[in-house]
Here is the input.
Amino acid sequence: MKIVIINYGAGNIQSIKFAIERLGYQAVLSDNVDEIKNADKVIFPGVGEASSAMNKLRESGLDKLVPTLKQPVLGICLGMQLMCNSTEEGDTKGLGIFDVDVIRFTNEVKVPQIGWNQIRDFKSHLFEGVTNESYIYLVHSFYAPVCNETICVTDYGVNYSTALQKNNFYGTQFHPEKSSDVGEKILRNFLNL
Amino acid sequence: MLTKRIVPCLDIKNGRTVKGVNFVDLRDAGDPVELAAIYAKTGADELVFLDISATEERRKTLADLVRNVAKEVNIPFTVGGGISSVEDVDILLQNGADKVSVNSSAVKRPELINKLSSKFGSQCITVAIDAKQIDGEWIVHLVGGKVPTELNLFDWAKEVEQRGAGEILFTSMDNDGTKDGFANKALARLSTELNIPIIASGGAGNMQHFVDTFKEGKADAALAASVFHFKEIGIPKLKEKLKVAGIPVRL
Here is the structure.
């Protein structure tokens, strides 16, 4: 299986590579259009600030490529947010794969949310074998509200989407690569799609 | 529900853990990667590595360590100690660190916090603050609490938040090493006046201290070193106790 992690200069992507290796697979980091197109699975990571990440995607032309991909694609954290219509962070237009606008948590809760919270209401194979209310690791200030493409929710002052799916596109707000055994199961489920 | 985090801290010198550890099941008591993996397996929510090396090769040694930890460990970790530039942070994040913590360099050049948070995002920038009370006022200190600054803890903490820090790691030098409990009054004030997560550090001696710092100190996470390294407190037992006390934890 050929797994490509899209490398567009966004933060900590080694962790995802290492997590995939712990599961017994290999992954390559790449910004090459053909290599990404020909992969069996594509991971679209993202750590950092939305508008600068989106600029980097545009500079490399990857903003045009990602929405046309046919194989399973997993956006993680900011990667998931950039797959939405837009995000309030830096007033950024997204890739428009998921039909939802990402907004900031209100100051009724501490922002960013950092730490382990619970996931529930699963509506996808991505969560096969995962117990309801399992703990996953999150670190974010912006969130996708619940929408038609929501496949998992979490409560942090508000119920919001911790995972989205549309056709072959998946996104998780949490970091499966940092979410201990639960995260590894979800990552494995994705690789087995 | 978002849970309270338990965070063991490992002091690192030249790629090895410094403070003695008392883990009979460790093959190599000085190997931070092995220790980190054990903590991850036994329920630690996050790890902090504090580098105190002062050699020429420190940057490379630390980067190698971070890479090895990231390979082995499936929970998040923060790296701190001597970080003073965008380049320093870039190297650590590229090698697999989830967050970095800055301390002295932020006091000397506060604009560093703005630079780091705009380049890497607030979520991965922790600002560590060491403080102790002088004539009843909490004063920020440098060099592990030896050198006082002009800064008031609460003013500095607010400035740090405004400049884009994602989290504050507050160590009370008055409590550190006493095993008498955390500085809960100061912690509660920080937690109330600021809107970013606060990690409590300094003073952990028994399990009740953790209950107190989450309840009275309103801390979002609690950090400790020796009580974990010497197995005075086991993390699974600690979490059971916290749960019984009504504190949300990941079990």
Summary: The two ends of chain B are 13 Å apart (CA to CA). Chain B has ten helices and eleven strands. Residues 154 and 190 of chain B are 7 Å apart (CA to CA). The longest helix of chain B spans residues 58-72.
